[in-house]
Amino acid sequence: MASGELDYSSGVPLYRQIKEILRREIADGAADPQKPMTEAQLLSRFEVSRAPIRQALMELTSDGYVYRKQGKGTFPARGLRVHRPADVQSGRFYQFLVDSGMHPSSKVSVPEWVEPPTEVGQLLGTDEHERLLHFTRLISVEGAPLAEANVYIRAPRDFNPTVQELEESGSAFELLERGYGITLGRSEHEAWATAATADDAATLGVSEGSPLLVIDTIFRTAGGRPIGWRSALHHAENFKYRFTQ
Question: Residue 132 is inside which H or E element, if any?
Fold first, then answer.
């Protein structure tokens, strides 16, 4: 069966299949951003009722893949759009991308035990000369860089995950929970805009000076102990983060 056809025997709701077909076409650049996606066109293409078409378009709009122009219709959005809901638990963003069908991949630096920068140590309440596990992670979606994270974790000293383990799990905290029973509780975020440096531009595939979204996060265990710090740089135009209090 062609990737653009519906599978009536799969058990997957038709609106989800339609949404995934259109999402992939938009992400791959196959959908013309100048051409509106009309209900009539989609009804003719997929030969279904209006309900699944409308549901698919509504969810694509919510996810940022399409947008409405007053009086002109619904159009594909340029570039990748990732909307992170407020109910995605900290440390589970990579799994959210997987579950959303975005086919993420990650590239992780070799983890090392290091003394953290003074500011990070103060935020986490570390002892003098205490070493933390440090690594960087570059997350890509559909082959395009989305975010780079700089991570420090207060972990047992025998916690030495390999690059492969970190890349396959998508989260060091998932490995900590699996191996040591250490679970995350609440987290604290601080976000602001910045301009891409030359290094940022090379890593994320943008022009130097382009706007980036920075989100710094302090992770705490279920008992409230600060266990990790992460600073993540995101494509400002491709990433939307929803907060709740």
Answer: strand 132-141
